[in-house]
Amino acid sequence: MLPKFEPNEVAQLVLANLGLICWSINLIPQAIQIYRTKNVGVLSSAMLLIWISWAPTFGALVFSTGQSWPILLQPNLFGFFNAICYAQYQYYGPPKRSLAVSVTIFFALLATIGGAEVALYFAAVYSAASKNSAVNWFPTALGILPTVQNFVSFAPQYYNIYIHKTTHGISRIFLVLDCLGGVFSIFALFCGKNEVDPFSFAVYASVCLLTGGILCLSIAFTIRDWRAGRRASHSPVAASDPLEPDAHQTEADQKC
């Protein structure tokens, strides 16, 4: 059993709201970056899609376990902004779909999230109240599934980073806010009256660890590129090489 602090409704509400704020706006910087650069970089569409599928499962879990209302809103807002980023990926990313198709995908995802969450919630409530042992496993499975989805979702993103050796296209502000959302939500769980739900704790902790890993890689790659730039700037060839053609002249020659 996980340890608990003394129940404090005010602290729980404050921390849960801070977590809600972080997870409500965490993908906004990512969406803005995609819109401004018209590029998705190494951002994984598979990760976004798995996060979208995570929203209804975790949403049904927190509704069925009676968590505080800010925690109830988190997965739904997270799914909403993920749907925006996924639609942007379809428009600006490799698929290069039309605006109409991308918008249609966005609304189709929202309808799927809502329908799946309602269905999973009623299934969890029914199976928990049922005396039939054949369905009693469902609430436990619903608690495990979001954790598995969260871990699996980062695999394609880490793979992209490993292949390209960069985190280009991934907003660092998004990563920081995502980590903070997990931290605040963990403390909110410990401050509540109810026993700490281990499944919710596992989800929040995995968010902190896996998102924090990408943030560390982003910083490491930035330092690497900065050092490479310094070495290049101090290189005699890079500084001034009479054998290297002028960039503007080469462009002019190509046009001719």
The main β sheet shows up as:
none
What class, by secondary structure content? mainly alpha
Helix/strand order, N-terminal first: HHHHHHHHHH
General shape = globular
Number of helices: 10
Question: Segments where pLDDT lies below 50 for 5+ residues?
Answer: 238-256
Question: Which helices and strands appear, and what pairs or packs with what?
Answer:
Elements: H1 9-25, H2 28-37, H3 45-64, H4 69-92, H5 99-129, H6 138-164, H7 172-191, H8 198-233, H9 236-239, H10 247-255
Helix pairs in contact: 1-4, 1-7, 2-4, 3-4, 3-5, 3-6, 4-5, 6-8, 7-8
Descriptive account of the structure:
The structure is a single chain. With 256 residues, this protein is mostly helical. It contains 10 helices and no strands. The protein starts with 8 loop residues before the first helix and ends with a helix. Residues 238-256 have low confidence and may be disordered.
